[in-house]
Structures are given as C-alpha cells and as structure tokens.
User: Which sequence fits this backbone?
C-alpha cells in the first residue's frame, strides 16, 4: 500500500474472515475506508485445516474490501489465535560486565534474546516476549531500567508460545492469496487495543473475546498484560448443541441462536414457541424458546467457567492482583442476549460489552462498531500506530531496523500499547529482527 497512513488488518477467524482498511484522521482517530467479509471455510478452532479453502476465503474478503474502498491491498497484518496458543511466566537475568556504565538498549536486547533461547516443546515457537517488570541489583518493581546503574538485570516475562506449523500455514495462506505479511500479532492483544481504555488496563481488567471457534482471554493490570489464554471453544459449539438438541440443520440452528437465543432460561415463558420449516416437504418443527435457551445456557456457562478459571489462575482473588474494572466481553459471541447478566452472576465481577469504538472516528458505520469486528479494528490500529512511529523522528539508535521493514514492529507496538511506559527502543529493534526472521522462515518454508 503506497500510503503510509493506511493499514490493513486481516482477521482469520473460524466463522468469518475480515479484511479491514483504515487510516488515521486529523484528530488521531481511525477511519474505516473499506471492509470485506467472507465465510471462513477451512479454519477449525482458529487453526487452518484446509489451505485451499482458506486462501479462497481470504481472497474473497480482500476483494470485497478493495471494492468498497476503491484501493488495492498489498500488505496485511494478521491476527493469530487458535487452540495451540499457550502462555507461561518466566524470569531471567543477565550479569553485566561493567556495572559502572548505565543500562542501555543492548542489555534489554540481550535479556530478551536469552528468553528466546528457552527450550520449547517440539514444534513450538515463541510468538511474543512481553516484559512485566524489572529488577536491578535486587531492587524490585522497576518499570523502565534504562539509564540506571547496576550489575545484575532481572526481568519477569510473559511468554506467548504457538505451534510452528500453524503459524507457518497462516503465512502460507496469506502469501498464496497474493498478499505480503507485514506482521502478526496475538488476537487477544489486538482486541484489547480496540475495546479497552487505558484506565481499565491500569485498574485491572479481563477481556474475554468469544469467537466462533475459540474464546480468547487477555488480562491487564497496572497497564501491563499479565496473562493470556485461548480456550478451544466458542460460539460454534453453541450452534452445534442447538443442531443436535433440536434435530435441525446448522443454518437453522445459527439463525435460531442469533434471532431468539438467550443465555438466561428464566426469561422465556413455556408457551413461547418458534416454528421451523421442515426439509423437503416434511412437517415443520416446533421448538420452545425455553428449551432453546436451556441448551444455550448450559454451553455458555461452560465457556464462562473456563474463562473464570483462567482469571483465578492469574490470581484475581489476591488483593494485589484484583481486577477492579472486572470483565469486558467482545467478539461475535458477546452479542448473545442476557450474556452480560449471566457473566456477572457466575463470576461476581462487573461486566460490560466491549464495542470497538474507543478509537474510531465519530461517523463510523454502526456495523463496524459491532463487537464482532473488535479484532480487525485492533489489528488495523496496531499497524497504523507502528507506521506512525516509523515516520516520526526517532532516537537515532532506534532507526537501525525500522526502515527496512515497514510495519513489522507490529509486535513491538502491541507491546507499547499495552504498557503505559514507553517500551525500550531495544525491545522494538528486537521485535523488528523477530519479524524479519519470521518472514525469512516463511520464505524458506515454501
């Protein structure tokens, strides 16, 4: 894409693939120039399982976005999720040769590189290394160690790990669809960029993004990402249950869920009935809305309990780690009626539905501010912010890697958005190199 101020996000989901073109307006808000959507065929629980169909779906979405915007798409930023994603906490340290010199980017770089040498399970690769806080010579809770004196530099990291083959398959699909991959980022982080405010990230918040195939979770506290998880089921299993429970076809089950579904069975009276046309001249089926919401309720409770378990694993019940801003629900599944009330009932935490209008221009179409586009908006935002940072006059030693690979610091940008403090330029160069390495890796794979 010629224009530096324009970016394209590609959200490859289980139910739909969205290509979104956006640019920053004069007020720093994001304008959506074009959006394309296609039914996702060939993706199961966030993982590509049919390359040909996925390529066709990507091309369809991109074509729609090009038609609606009148622009040609060349490079995209892709979100990655799927049941293969896991995260872990890790602490590491380096001993500096000369403690009379102040800590600089190189030291942070060395520390991050050390984390990348962690031995992973066969077939896994580190996607993000997100520093939490640093320790210098035993002095804890330092957010920005650059410029300080010290001999031993330690840090706690949040490390996100994914399956190499799954990441490679996504890269393959994007390339085969005739597009350049300018960066990849974790989908929960992208969604968080789109729907959470800085105050919420400071106070402590859990973002639950209910997609078709997976439910993504991202937990923030003190402006820093603390925990991420991908739960391997989402809205599709609810549709599946309705299909089985009511003996109807999938298309009807999906429509029933969207039009009449509710997560709270007490809402419906026993005599509320919906009639579904039978197949090829068979008798129509009558389904009570109470039964429908009972089926939905059972599965939604399971999804929420799984997410709540992750929130408890993070340590929400400890006073210091309490998530004051509660839960924000987003993704297509968040549009289910009475879901907010059910989540509050199960978890006892304040809950709101997250619409991605935090950073959008005021005249945005109401469709694009729907929770189901949160990830796509987040991807475009991250890419725009990293491009703007590239253009801005930067500290000399930061410019080393950023010129050659426009947009590749998407990761670093997610990093910077999530942390309130400015993340080190070293961290950014480090991400640059990671994105370069990843591109090489994709090219060699072909």
Assistant:
């Amino acid at each position: 894409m010629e224009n530096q101020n324009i970016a394209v996000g590609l959200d490859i989901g289980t139910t739909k693939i969205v290509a979104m073109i956006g640019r920053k307006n004069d007020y720093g808000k994001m304008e959506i120039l074009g959006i394309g959507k296609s039914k996702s065929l060939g993706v199961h629980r966030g993982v590509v399982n049919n390359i040909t169909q996925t390529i066709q779906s990507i091309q369809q979405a991109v074509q729609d976005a090009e038609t609606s915007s009148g622009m040609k798409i060349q490079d995209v930023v892709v979100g990655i999720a799927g049941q293969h994603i896991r995260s872990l906490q890790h602490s590491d340290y380096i001993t500096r040769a000369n403690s009379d010199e102040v800590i600089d980017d190189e030291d942070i770089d060395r520390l991050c590189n050390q984390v990348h040498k962690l031995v992973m399970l066969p077939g896994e690769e580190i996607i993000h290394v997100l520093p939490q806080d640093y320790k210098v010579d035993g002095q804890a809770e330092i957010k920005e160690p650059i410029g300080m004196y010290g001999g031993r530099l330690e840090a706690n990291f949040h490390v996100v790990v994914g399956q190499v083959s799954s990441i490679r398959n996504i890269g393959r699909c994007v390339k085969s669809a005739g597009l350049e991959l300018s960066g990849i980022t974790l989908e929960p982080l992208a969604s968080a960029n789109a729907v959470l405010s800085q105050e919420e990230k400071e106070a402590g918040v859990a973002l639950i993004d209910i997609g078709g195939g997976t439910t993504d979770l991202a937990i923030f506290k003190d402006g820093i990402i603390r925990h991420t998880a991908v739960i391997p089921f989402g809205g599709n299993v609810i549709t599946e249950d309705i299909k089985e429970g009511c003996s109807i076809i999938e298309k009807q089950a999906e429509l029933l869920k969207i039009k009449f579904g509710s997560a709270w069975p007490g809402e419906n009276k026993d005599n509320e009935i919906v009639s579904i046309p039978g197949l090829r001249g068979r008798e129509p089926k009558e389904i009570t809305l109470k039964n429908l919401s009972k089926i939905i309720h059972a599965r939604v409770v399971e999804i929420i309990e799984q997410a709540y378990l992750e929130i408890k694993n993070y340590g929400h019940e400890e006073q210091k780690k309490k998530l004051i801003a509660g839960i924000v629900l987003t993704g297509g599944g968040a549009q289910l009626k009475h879901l907010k009330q059910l989540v509050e009932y199960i978890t006892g935490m304040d809950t709101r539905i997250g619409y991605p209008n935090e950073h959008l221009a005021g005249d945005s179409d109401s469709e694009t501010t729907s929770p189901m586009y949160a990830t796509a908006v987040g991807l475009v935002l991250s890419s725009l912010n990293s491009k703007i940072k590239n253009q801005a006059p930067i500290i000399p030693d930061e410019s080393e890697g950023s010129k050659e690979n426009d947009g590749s610091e998407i990761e670093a940008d997610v990093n910077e958005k999530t942390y309130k403090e400015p993340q080190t330029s070293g961290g950014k160069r480090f991400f640059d190199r990671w994105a370069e390495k990843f591109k090489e890796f994709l090219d060699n794979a072909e």
User: Anything to note?
Assistant: The CA atoms of residues 223 and 259 lie 38 Å apart.
